[in-house]
Sequence to fold (236 residues):
Amino acid sequence: MPSIRRTSSCLLTRHRTSHKNRISGRAYPAREIAIAIQPGKIAYILLDQHLAELYSRWPHFISTAPEIAYAYVADYLRLRPDVTVKADSLGNLAQARHLPPQALTATVERFNRSVRGERSDAFGRTGDQVPLAGDRWILLGPVKAYFTTTEGGAAVNEQLQVLDAAGRPIDGLYAVGQNGLGGQILWGHGLHIAWALTSGRLVGQRLGSTADKGFPQALADVPDSPASWLDRGRRP
Fold:
């Protein structure tokens, strides 16, 4: 949810701890680490009426999702009622997730006062211009901070051969997809699958071009490997 964190959505925690003021107003990854420090390691994302309407149409999606590509507020309410709740007031919203209603209302009021310039923001946030208000409220969560993948992959050369500690190609060993990033960091939707297809094709072409010359011995010697199937003129 990278875009939703750049708007005036409010990131809430259930517990009031010394780490709470580290969450809002900090950038990635300090914000995510601060969530992980919380008791229970969870937080909630609060959307008011304006934000709920904003995240109901392109280009403001909440996240990507299987089969529907981009998921908006209505999609989360329909498909993920376990992590999405709506209400006509903050009090009812809090009760739906067993949060203290008075504390939630007070938190939103403090935020709104800072937006109106009536007080300084306790969490160091700047740039918010629209108070949270309306009679349609959405609460997403509980949300957690995870490292879902590690970027970078193995060290490879331009032929996508994996390199050893001395920077020498390891005979017969190639890396593609996530394992063959060679230090790249991919941001954006579809780039990982695009690189998987591209790098896989490049290595396939390279191996195919060596078919008449004999496959690398390291691959040909592996029982039931693709190299051994083709080397013996068989198919799996």
Remarks:
- The chain is about 30% helix and 15% strand.
